[in-house]
Write a structure and sequence with these properties.
Layout lengths: L1 H18 L8 H4 L3 H19 L38
Length: 91
């Protein structure tokens, strides 16, 4: 019985380890790219990189609340007084 439970534990522990192994292509001739596909991919990459160069840099702040906030840093407030019971009145 111990041997059977030990074998079950080993099988359960090897499942996640097997899932982490890299994908190994056992049939590379099926998934390989043709020279035309490689050229098309290179052209796509080149066009993508050129389009990234055309995006302008952001020079202005994108803070929508920037005009609402004060320029000075917020001052720390005084320590809060301990609160009393909410229902009591001080007379």
């Amino acid at each position: 019985m111990r041997i059977l439970s030990a074998a079950a534990v080993i099988v359960l522990l090897t499942g996640p380890a097997y899932a982490q192994t890299p994908n190994v292509n056992l049939m590379p001739e099926i998934a390989s790219k043709t020279p035309e596909e490689k050229e098309a991919e290179a052209a796509r990459d080149k066009a993508y990189k050129e389009s990234l160069k055309k995006i302008p840099d952001a020079k202005a702040s994108t803070d929508p609340w920037g005009s609402v906030r004060s320029v000075d840093a917020p001052k720390t407030s005084a320590p809060a007084k301990p609160r009393t019971k909410t229902g009591s009145t001080a007379n």
